[in-house]
Amino acid sequence: MTRCPNPVQYRPHHTWLGCLGINFGQRSGAIFLALLGLLGGCAVATGGTATAPNTASSNDAAIATPFESIALAPSPAEALVNASRLMQAKARRLVAPADPVAVDLYTLDERCENYRREPILVPRPQSMETTVDLILAEQAIPELTLSGYRTRFDPETKIVTIDLRVARTSRRVLQSLSVCEQKALLGSLRETLVNQPDWKIESVTFTNRGTPLVL
After folding, report:
1. Distance (Å, rounded) from C-alpha 192 to C-alpha 81?
2. Which of 32, 97, 117, 152 could disulfide-link 123, Cβ–Cβ 3.0 to 4.6 Å?
3. Cα–Cα distance between 189 and 103 in angstroms, integer?
4. HSE-CB for 106 with a 13 A CA cutoff
5. Which residue has the higher pLDDT, 206 or 84?
């Protein structure tokens, strides 16, 4: 029977291990102590405490990245406004006016080469103004906002003057229009007005708040 050692007395390692119910031979005990030494060395190498990898910063960065890209992306508000205005303008074509008159609407194609002709019905009173309004509503130029317009027809010279008014909050001005944008906005107006035989219009000029528009 193995006796437990007195706390103040020294005994070989196999004696106090036997008190714990663990009985090793001399060789096995040496192997066990070697393993304890290796484990102790690992604890010292890591500072004695096990630390989990700091994943908070990496997770925060992964989460923040999508929000940063969204913040840098352009706001969709302008696109929604333009899409809503375009839908409303196209919906007006489906409403048959009380006293209709047929006109040909000319709009630029996607290749910026030719104008497409589309017959539509507009109210006979102020038919010219209604047609101009439809073209301006359907020609959405990015970052160009018009606050209004005015048309004036001189029956003697047979010239129509369209005064375009750019909004104060517009990010672009009319002088910044590209060639295709000029053809889409101004060219569609000119082609539509000149090609209406009943209106007898020979020329169309444009002004910007009363000042002749030079592009």
Report:
1. 25
2. 97
3. 13
4. 17
5. 206
Pull the structure tokens for residue 97.
């006016």
Q: Which residue has the tokens 């700091």?
A: 54
Provide the whole-model pTM: 0.59
The Cα–Cα gap between 169 and 147 comes to 9
Mean pLDDT is highest, among 35-44, 64-73, 80-89, for: 80-89
Q: Three-state SS for 189?
A: helix
- What does each C-alpha distance from 187 to 115, 120, 149, 184 come to in angstroms? 9, 18, 16, 6
In degrees and rounded to multiples of 5, residue 138 shows phi and psi of: -95, -5
DSSP 135-158: HHHH---TT--EEEEEEEEETTTT
User: pLDDT band at residue 49, thresholds of 50, 70 and 90?
Assistant: very low
Residue of 140, 131, 132 whose CA lies nearest to 97: 131
